[in-house]
Amino acid sequence: MTLAARVSWKLSLRVAAGGLVVLLLVLFTWRLVTQERGRGLAHAVAGGRMPAAPDFSLPRLNGDGKLRLSDLRGRVVLINFWASWCVPCRTEAPRLAAAWRRWHDRGVVFVGVDAQDFRSDGRAFLRDHGLTYPNVRDGSGSTLDRYGTSGFPETWFVSRSGRLVADHVDGPLTSARIDRDLRAALAE
Which of 57, 101, 125, 180 could form a disulfide with 84 if both were Cys (CB 3.0 to 4.6 A apart)? Predict the structure, then answer.
């Protein structure tokens, strides 16, 4: 290889590496901005405001077709973000299953959002924990970003009018917290 060819090759590698660094910085910045936008929801709700719940349309994990949040308008919705590999999610699952049995006859809908997970692992998790309420898969993580979800589990409560109510719960739910926040959502 001639000297000119080697120089040209090294220059091409440097340009490619620089381009990769720029691309990674752009992706990191985009992720940070979208998460901050979602965290703004938590601040708004904590400040007493009731922002609209970001809509989503995701494929069902335990059924066919897609579930669209806006189709549930008129009903109170508990949205729980989880993953099969999440240890606190395993602890929380029996509480959610029991709460679903207590609340589903009162017009309340639970929606589980499985993210950062394999579809087969998510389905096994549902089966192992007897979760029969609707669950969807957020394969791309776009819904996670819109809600500002930074860990698992995280839960939001949506009023009949499609507004976020009660502070979102970052971590496993207790039965008392589920009941309290669902009552607040029903009262809105």
Answer: 125
Q: Give residue-wise pLDDT tens across range 125-177.
A: 999 999 999 999 998 888 998 998 888 999 999 999 999 987 788 899 999 99
Backbone angles phi and psi of 47, in degrees to 5: -85, 10
Give every CB contact of residue 168 below 8 A, 6+ residues apart in sequence.
41, 42, 45, 147, 154, 155, 156, 157
124/118 Cα distance (integer angstroms):
10
**Which percentage of the chain shows pLDDT scores above 70?**
86
**Structure-block tokens of residue 116:** 């950062």
Closest C-alpha among 71, 45, 90, 69 to residue 142? 69
Q: Are 75 and 186 in contact (CB under 8 A)?
A: no
User: pTM for the whole thing?
Assistant: 0.78
Handedness of CA 177, 178, 183, 187 (dihedral sign): positive
Task: Give the three-state DSSP class for 81.
Answer: strand
Residue with tokens 């990191």: 28
Distance separating alpha carbons of residues 73 and 163, to the nearest angstrom = 10
C-alpha–C-alpha distance, residues 53 and 112, integer Å:
15
